[in-house]
Write a structure and sequence with these properties.
With about 850 residues, this protein is mostly beta strands. About 5% of the residues lie in helices and about 50% in strands.
Amino acid sequence: MDRAFGRAGWLLGSVATPPDRPPIVLHLMPLLPRSAQLLTPGSPVQRAAPASVRLRLSALARASLLACCAPALLAQAHAQAAQAATATPAAAALAPAAPKPSAAGAGAVALTLSERLQEALPAAALSEAALLLSAERMSGQAGHEVQLEGQAELRRHDLVLRADTLRYEAATGTAHAQGQVRINRLGDVFEGPALTLQLDTRQGQFESPKFSLLRHGGYGEASRVDFEGPGRTAAHQVRYSTCPRPRDGSWEPDWYLSANRIVFDQQTDTGTATGAVLNFKGLPILAAPWISFPLSDRRKSGFLAPTFNLDNISGLELTLPYYFNLAPNRDATLFPTLMSERGIDWAGEFRYLEPRYAGQVRAAFMPDDRLRDADRWGVSLQHQHALPALGGLGAPSLRLDLNRVSDDNYWRDFPRTGTSLTSRLLRNDIELLANRGNWALRAGAYTWQTLQDRDAPIEAPYDRLPSLSASYRSGPFGWAGSAGWSVSLLTDVTQFRTDRQPLIGAFNQRTDVNGTRWLGVLNVDKTWQTPGAYLRPALQLHARQYQLEQAVGPLGARERNPSVLVPTVSVDTGLVLERDAVYFGRAVLQTLEPRLFVAHTPYRRQGYLPVYDSSAFDFNLNSIFSANPFGGHDRIADLSAVTLGATTRLLDPATGAEWANLSVAQRLRLRDQEVVLPGQQAIREELSDVLFAANLNWSPQWAFNGTLQYNPELGQTERTTLAARYSPGDFRVFNVAYRLQRDTSEQIDFGWQWPLSDLLRGPSVAALGPGRGLGPGHWFSVGRVNYSFTERRIVDLIAGFEYDAGCWIARIVVERLQQSRTQANQRILFQLEFAGFSRLGSNPLQVLRDHIPRYQFLREEINPPSRFQRHE
């Protein structure tokens, strides 16, 4: 062994190794962090090193230097590099490389700051990683073995090994450690009395260790741990939990998994236990001869945690899902559900994602449902397919959305099957899409399955079998020496079908007749725009012709092929004015945006025609500035009106963020509106209701918004919506909304997630961050309540509590969802979540997120931990 004493008197040396193995560097008690001490050019020990000392700055060393050295240290390294290069050959090897290195300097390395530390090195770089040994006393024979005693340490890129005594066999690359052994492998820490480890294969054995796994947040203790290779560890007679281990004293976690053997496989991110028993608060709650659990969110095949519900219709529901990870782009799930009052519902789902197509299939079958004394089933298919280009058509595609169920009561009896099967209107669409230039082409068949309720029947929409359309939309273009022109054209032919009996209605009364509608809509508009104003006149020609199976119209003048041509002219204009202002001590940029919209459509008789797809738009600040108050194409209103409105906004002058806005608008009819929907009377009012809307986001914690529809003739509001949200931080949100529709409904809605400690303990506890909660020992109240003042009862209710113990979370939630005027579905959901391991019980998390705006999961992996968090 070569020796040299530096200026500070510390021993530095190197041990000769076989040519195919990386060099071993030995040093005693460095002043700086060990990697920095060895790798800093011009450091005392390096300047004193003789030429025989072999130092190699590999990818490992660069990563180590970035990980453990301060930026100032790197700056010093750059500044001293040139001077150090002339001191010794070892120092010269550390000098920054020139832009065009010579052959002699081909091995030189330039140190650069990196914004991202590498979690793992490439295999080639790792095989060349330098090995660092240090201790109070060392002895050995070059090329054979080295004995280290007293604060012995072995360091390499992927691990740090410390012990009272350590023996390293250079020929085999094996380390033997005794006494207070501690090893840190990429952030995973093991501590115990004795260890044997082969460094290259990562195979070895640790006696009676205690361990902590970084990425999984797990802790454990075992009689023995076998290191079986990179990323694979087997623990014997083991206890495993994610409950933290105290620094001193015994470890008695609230929950733990005891097993004869647990294999932690980081390559697949799974843990596999044999002879396993799950214990909670000292009581065994689940036992299995074999169990597999995830160590991350990575997908894996196997049984998922069972769930159970207590339902007033189905009784006790127990679901045992099994997940198939078929391929990176395909998976399937079987979730049979035992319902104590009804039988077994056999359900499954298959999902796929291919380069040109993707979709999912969901199906369920319950034989002999005791609730209805019948077989029950439901099928749902969603599929999107990019087809090959054909005949110059661009981006042709196929879309399927098919949903069918066995009977009208399916939506009521299976309320949690899936959104596509719990609606009372189930769509069944087959559609082909393509484009060519500015043209878009569509061909499809669209049908509905309508699930009727005797207490609340609904009118089934018309099926469209088939429907063909071609639409054209130009970009802005110039014409007659003026830019800003735009043209659009829609052509459509659709056959409408219904199972209802034909009905020939009187004028402005309902008519149900099957038929085909030919449609053409042409729009031409011109836009003049400046930074402070715009003007947009437009012309629309709306033409349609019907081919009906029964004649319609007044007695004595009925026809089967009526046609209508309706022209519409409109002008939309407005200003955008700005000024600097100060409100409540805050400087703002205030805008004033008056807007004027004028539309004229002549009267065309349409009251005898069937209504295939027309319905009234909701009366709001968007529809009031439109020329037609109806959607669809079977009613074009004879609207001759002027709409006047204004909006003012308060903006952040620096960022443009909107802090507040207020809008108002009203329509003035210049004549009566005769064209209405069936069953309605002509509109005689000269002035429409006044619309008000406001939004206020004055601070990040508070948000307010509201709309109001005021009838000036009656002096009362017709519709009111007011909403507020208070969210001072993570896991704290309170929402309230009030909705009034005159003579129809009046409701108030509350939704919240709030820690009870804020109410019981005084000052608020700061959150640890998204997905990490507030820390152990906190109760949360969660819920949403919808109350109807009209019916004087709670319509929908979701309320419960969450308790965060740190390594486990308990949830209990009561859910009541109104199914009809006389029937509601009620259930109780209870869940135990063992953080980083699994969940048992019914799962209320999706229910809470769907119904409580801005609800946050107490545990959710946002950013996976890095091994540099435990860098030593």
